[in-house]
Specification:
Length: 173
């Protein structure tokens, strides 16, 4: 199963309802934004792993997330504190542009999309870590391969959004 599918199926209805309630949105809209946000997050990760230093840096970060269960601490997740730092590393200064692109597609405000991106970022890291990190360590080559595979699958699931986001992220593959 593709990483994006694992992430979406890993967020149960109660968690989705809780996130939606905290944000004042309908659960279906939160799920739509999560689905639309994954190509951006995976595209940003893919761009970051294109060179060996970026792959090694992500591998180290994933080692830190190997035992993470972000869905277990929903309050912290919804506050967006952890997600803000991850977004800065993954999307750089493009977070507002990505939020607006997802907003245009989903009809959810850019501000709410950014909040959902901050929630999604640690979830993506935890799920990715569960695939590639063993014993708190991840191999940069395996990380690069998994990110590229996940990004490719996410873009094929949402080709229109994938091409828009690829342009925003500097041609992320």
């Amino acid at each position: 199963m593709a990483l994006a599918d694992d992430i979406l199926s890993g967020i149960d209805a109660d968690t989705l309802d809780n996130i939606a309630q905290q944000l004042g949105l309908e659960p279906g809209k939160v799920q739509e934004v999560l689905k639309d946000s994954l190509p951006a997050l995976l595209g940003g990760l893919d761009k970051n792993v294109q060179d060996d230093d970026g792959a090694a840096s992500l591998a180290n970060a994933l080692g830190d997330h190997a035992e993470a269960n972000p869905l277990g601490d929903l309050g912290s997740l919804i506050s967006g504190v952890a997600g803000s730092g991850i977004l800065e590393k993954v999307l750089g200064g493009k977070t507002p542009d990505v939020s607006q692109a997802v907003s245009n597609k989903s009809g959810v405000s850019g501000i709410d999309v950014e909040k959902i991106l901050k929630i999604a970022a640690p979830i993506v890291m935890a799920f990715l870590a569960s695939r590639v990190a063993k014993g708190g360590k991840a191999d940069p080559g395996a990380v690069k391969e998994e990110v590229q595979k996940a990004n490719s699958a996410a873009k094929s699931d949402a080709p229109d959004l994938g091409s828009i986001l690829g342009g925003l992220l500097g041609g992320a593959k």
